[in-house]
Write a structure and sequence with these properties.
Strand content: 25-35%
CATH topology: Rossmann fold
CATH superfamily: Vaccinia Virus protein VP39
Mean pLDDT: 93
CATH architecture: 3-Layer(aba) Sandwich
Largest sheet: 9 strands, mixed
Radius of gyration: 18 Å
Number of strands: 14
Helix content: 25-40%
Number of helices: 9
Low-confidence stretches: none
Order of helices and strands: EEHHEHEHEEEEEHHEHHEEEHE
Strand order of the largest sheet: 5-4-3-9-10-13-11-12-14
Oligomer: single chain
Distance between the termini: 46 Å
Shape: globular
């Protein structure tokens, strides 16, 4: 009814301590209709356990701001938050939601991230949570969007507490363009799925190899309260999507929070 009356983009609801417009997107509808049960609510619990006021965080694939806006608001102005969203329509929703919450510590960028600078084909589906850099075999409406490496942004050249990465299988190319940023980052929270990565010619295990070669330890979050982590296996396979927590220095993390590490994936 709201969409039919043209009011859905004006209706405001609360989610995770922040305010959002009820835009006609799958992500927004999950936040509005199914907030306690969708996976983003669990992600926020994990991230809030890991983060502290004054941290610096980067959200790549921010969508309408479902994660970065509640976190930027909860952590306060001492925290600097940076959000990247490539799709122009979704970026407008992200901008509107950020403005609604008056977040002076949140900085928004309308770019796809990858290994190179230029333009890239991007899918233009109305299921806005599934748009991605178009693979060679993609059969979907397309638009062109600007692409830059993460390392070309000023925010990549500072101490970074956490990078959240969810780009529907394009994660390896984003990380290849962010080598300098990775060296200054303590934590990664990255979505992985073999059916997504295979669209771009690699497997989840290749992503694990890339990160481990750069000193990252990879875990699944088994429990939030208390924080328990299980080690990702040597040759991982993710038939369905899941999130990995990458830790550069376990001593750093254990000094920040009590954590139990369990062997085995």
């Amino acid at each position: 009814m709201l969409r039919r009356w043209g009011l859905n983009g004006r209706w405001v609801f609360r989610y995770a301590g922040a305010r959002f417009y009820l835009f006609s997107t799958p992500m927004t509808q999950l936040m509005f209709f199914d907030a306690p049960r969708w996976h983003g609510a669990h992600d926020l619990q994990v991230l809030k356990r890991l983060l502290r006021a004054g941290d610096t965080l980067i959200d790549i694939g921010a969508n309408v701001g479902s994660h970065i806006i509640p976190l930027a608001k909860w952590l306060g102005t001492a925290t600097q938050a940076y959000a990247f969203e490539a799709h122009p329509r979704v970026f407008q929703y992200l901008q509107a939601n950020a403005k609604l919450n008056r977040l002076t510590n949140l900085h928004l960028y309308p770019y796809a991230l990858g290994e190179r600078e230029g333009e890239v084909r991007f899918t233009d589906l109305h299921t806005d949570d599934l748009n991605r850099v178009a693979s060679e075999t993609a059969d979907a409406p397309m638009i062109c969007v600007p692409m830059r490496p993460l390392d070309s942004f000023e925010c990549a050249h500072q101490s970074i507490t956490l990078i959240k990465l969810d780009v529907e299988g394009y994660e390896l190319f984003v990380l290849r363009g962010g080598e300098q940023a990775l060296q200054q980052t303590q934590l990664l929270y990255v979505e992985v799925c073999d059916s997504h990565t295979e669209l771009y010619g690699y497997r989840v295990r290749d992503l694990a190899t890339f990160l481990r070669a750069r000193g990252w330890q990879l875990y699944r979050v088994s429990s939030v309260q208390p924080l328990r982590l299980s080690v990702v296996e040597a040759e991982p396979y993710a038939a369905e999507w899941e999130n990995w927590l990458g830790v550069r220095d376990m001593n750093w993390l254990q000094a920040r929070i009590d954590v139990e590490v369990l062997d085995g994936g």
